[in-house]
Amino acid sequence: MNNIIGKINLPGVKKFRSGKVREVFDVGDSFLIVATDRISAFDYILPTLIPHKGEILNKLSVFWFKATENIIENHFITDNIEKYPDELKKYKEMLEGRSMLVKKAKPIDVECVVRGYIAGSGWKDYQKTGLVGGLKFDNLKQGDKLPSSLFTPATKSHTGHDENITFEQMKQVVPEKDAEFIKEKSIELYNFAHNYAHERNIIIADTKFEFGRLDNKIILIDEIFTPDSSRFWDPELYKPGGSQASFDKQFVRDYLLSIDWDRNSPPPELPPDIVEKTLQRYEEALKRLI
């Protein structure tokens, strides 16, 4: 396992951008994406690192990109450092296990969420309006399985909160033909992964995807089916009517909600036991899925 990594700079390699968790470097014809051990919640990067989290995220994304390439093309090229450009090989110790080389695609600024169960912001919306993704449902309880997988897009904010929108609103941002394609592929991806995971004792309750344009095609980018981008529930403890036992960062969100933090000021450090229990959940997701 690598050292714990919070910030990454590669002298001589141009940094393209820093996300909440990932650092992206421009290496000519491709991007290098490096997953750090940072964790975010409520649109803040927390000051505490989760050891080996970046490696777990990277390994899961590589696995899923390979497993779903027959559904839609994605941006993954390789995670084999021996195949990286020469200027990156001297950083092998830092990059090993937590990086991948990807194609350069122009992101489509919509978060593409698929829900199989009602939780999170979908549940909050439903409590207020009786609607999920603009559709009406009767008598849903928190955590209920939805009648079918539901595509519920959101605006993609780089500074504030993402906001849920309807599919009709998405078509005002993305050409209708492209929006229909993205919706179809998102649901197909979710259904495939949900069925695969269920056989391995994990419920994928919901997930989010990002897509980009490359050579007049729409491809899958960013990360896919990780504990950062998905809700992973324990089917043995699944019980509709409240929050669920999970193998994802909801555990950290729940902790932050339980303490005296207003979510409008810099977040506090996570206690060692919360760090350890978070890591255990991420490791269990990896162990069950791969």
Structural write-up:
The mean pLDDT is 95. A hairpin with a 3-residue loop joins β1 and β2. The chain contains eight helices and 16 strands. The longest helix has 23 residues, at 176-198. The chain starts with 13 loop residues before the first strand and ends with a helix. It is an alpha+beta fold and 290 residues long. It folds into two domains: 14-104, Phosphorylase Kinase, domain 1; 107-249, 2-Layer Sandwich (D-amino Acid Aminotransferase, Chain A, domain 1).
Task: Describe this structure in a few short sentences.
The protein is α+β, with helices and mostly antiparallel strands and 290 residues long. It is built from eight helices and 16 strands. It has helices at 53-67, 86-89, 92-95, 120-129, 167-170, 176-198, 250-258, 272-289, and strands spanning 14-18, 22-26, 30-35, 40-41, 44-45, 76-78, 99-103, 106-107, 110-117, 131-132, 135-136, 145-151, 154-155, 203-214, 217-221, 230-233.
Q: What's the topology here?
A:
Elements: E1 14-18, E2 22-26, E3 30-35, E4 40-41, E5 44-45, H1 53-67, E6 76-78, H2 86-89, H3 92-95, E7 99-103, E8 106-107, E9 110-117, H4 120-129, E10 131-132, E11 135-136, E12 145-151, E13 154-155, H5 167-170, H6 176-198, E14 203-214, E15 217-221, E16 230-233, H7 250-258, H8 272-289
Antiparallel strand pairs: 1-2, 2-3, 3-7, 4-5, 6-7, 8-14, 9-12, 9-13, 9-14, 10-11, 14-15, 14-16
